[in-house]
């Protein structure tokens, strides 16, 4: 695989991410980028963007078993950022459109959603959501300001 770095900032104000040694066994690689000049507020741009992201998850990311893509508003990020791993019992998260909950509660909730989706679609086998939930037994995460969790 070839990875091309388009631009690396030399600015002292550049957004940096510290990677903990513990995360290497769970998700050994991290790629970050900042995309500027994209307006996701007009029309249904955000919805189209998330549909494209989901297609990437389903295809190139192997239903999130190979990689996961997370999208955040860079204006809301507060340095320093830390990429780390913790057991789900030690995490409190706020997932998009949900209330505060522990990672254990989130995993349980997602398992129920995945099972309900499987039943609605009358599938015998598990879905990509089932597989991604199974990956969450040890959560990789990105914390802003070494506090609030951004990625599960």
UniProtKB/TrEMBL annotation:
<dbReference type="InterPro" id="IPR020825">
    <property type="entry name" value="Phe-tRNA_synthase-like_B3/B4"/>
</dbReference>
<dbReference type="InterPro" id="IPR045060">
    <property type="entry name" value="Phe-tRNA-ligase_IIc_bsu"/>
</dbReference>
<protein>
    <submittedName>
        <fullName>Uncharacterized protein</fullName>
    </submittedName>
</protein>
<dbReference type="GO" id="GO:0006432">
    <property type="term" value="P:phenylalanyl-tRNA aminoacylation"/>
</dbReference>
<dbReference type="GO" id="GO:0004826">
    <property type="term" value="F:phenylalanine-tRNA ligase activity"/>
</dbReference>
